[in-house]
């Protein structure tokens, strides 16, 4: 299922990034805490109730305003609007209606996307009064919110997503399911070359989807008697004999592909090093909870000192992917692909692992025996048993008393113990606490 995409639009300073940060800061947002990654992040993942969605903040794109007058909406913003399922148009309830708001409204109307008009910064104001003058924009009923205080935000998102179904239960039976493997990375790292190396002349489109920039290609792959569905984001498609290059790097497409997959292969370029865009794509993978294998591509023809350099780059910049295996490959020379797929298999197995309650509870007991949960506010949390709350990523739910007092460092300790005990390499692992029973 494609995740709905919400795009935030509005003139500068209306509060887009404040809203973005609020929407993307979920309970288990590991990524939000990673230093250096939150900066310049315009794409994120949010969850309301049990519905995940993607959100784009167009604020950091090219400026919308030129010497005080909005001339045209920046190209990237227009692209994002094209990819939106719903646009949230933010205006400033304290400053009132601005001339640029009218220009943006006009442009949005032409986009023919569903639009919600949100009047921000209305905390402490009378809603009806704050929003009255914005009726003039002709975009329906203005909704009063306060991004900074969180007021009205949940209602806004629920309204934005009301036409999207609840996500269905994932088929969890590991049995004869074919692993879905997304090949992702920024442009020119070698994704198409890798897909071609894997599929060669056998390249067959399994099921093709309508050709907008945000769609990926699904391909059947058989390797060593095992079947996979490759989700190809690189955008080279073959219809009959005609290759049609539709490459336009779309972050939304990449995020959708990751979301659809069981395992992501993140391709990075050993010759170019690790860029901010690589780190961002890594962050989405972490956010989504999908299993991960990293392919450090273009390893052929690299001098020794360059190899040392890229390894240091990886240690420094992709440290937070320490649960994943890294492979040094050459897609061009078809080197290292066998081992890469061993890790894909292992990561898939780990992501889908079935962990029984008795086993989990035994490991939990050992772990708490080794290190008791630290006392918090005079009370020592008591952890009683654990069960599995989900797969891909595996979720371990620990039941106990006074679990509110458990510190992040202790949660990480337990995650490490479970990971080791069940050999969960290649997949993120979530540990949650449940108070009471
Ligand atoms: P952007 O340029 O549209 O991304 O706007 P920002 O999110 O950077 O916000 C611009 C300014 O408005 C900042 O000083 C925010 O703290 C402030 N702001 C954002 N949301 C609210 C709100 O709900 N209430 C108030 N009073 N200020 C807000
Ligand atoms: P994409 O945009 O990620 O799909 O990247 P492409 O597969 O189109 O590759 C970009 C460029 O990198 C092309 O010129 C490829 O020939 C080159 N390339 C891809 N893989 C390798 C590799 O393993 N070694 C070297 N030396 N070049 C490669």
Q: What would CATH call the class of the largest domain?
A: Alpha Beta
Strand neighbour order, sheet with most strands: 10-11-12-9-15-16-17
- Rg, Cα atoms, Å: 24 Å
Largest sheet: 7 strands, mixed
Strand proportion, as a percent range, falls in 15-25%
Cα distance spanning the termini: 34 Å
Tell me how many strands there are: 20
Give unreliable regions as ranges: 27-32, 204-211, 237-247
Structural class: alpha/beta
Q: What small-molecule ligands were found?
A: guanosine-5'-diphosphate
CATH topology of the largest domain: Rossmann fold
Oligomeric state of shown chains = single chain
Mean pLDDT: 86
CATH architecture of the largest domain: 3-Layer(aba) Sandwich
How does this model look, in words?
There is one protein chain. With 437 residues, this protein is of the alpha/beta class. The protein has three domains: 5-161, P-loop containing nucleotide triphosphate hydrolases (Rossmann fold); 180-238 and 249-350, P-loop containing nucleotide triphosphate hydrolases (Rossmann fold), CATH 3.40.50.300; 357-435, 2-Layer Sandwich (GMP Synthetase, Chain A, domain 3). The chain contains twelve helices and 20 strands. The chain has helices spanning 16-24, 75-83, 99-111, 127-132, 153-160, 191-199, 251-260, 276-288, 304-317, 337-352, 357-370, 408-421, and strands at 5-9, 43-48, 51-57, 65-66, 69-70, 86-92, 115-120, 143-144, 180-184, 205-207, 217-223, 226-232, 236-239, 242-245, 263-269, 291-297, 325-328, 382-390, 395-401, 430-435. It has a seven-stranded mixed sheet with strand order 10-11-12-9-15-16-17, with helices on both faces. Strand 16 (291-297), helix 9 (304-317) and strand 17 (325-328) form a beta-alpha-beta unit. The longest helix has 16 residues, at 337-352. It is globular, with a radius of gyration of 24 Å. The two termini are 34 Å apart. 41% of the residues are buried. One guanosine-5'-diphosphate binds at residues 10, 12-18, 59, 120-121, 123, 146-149.
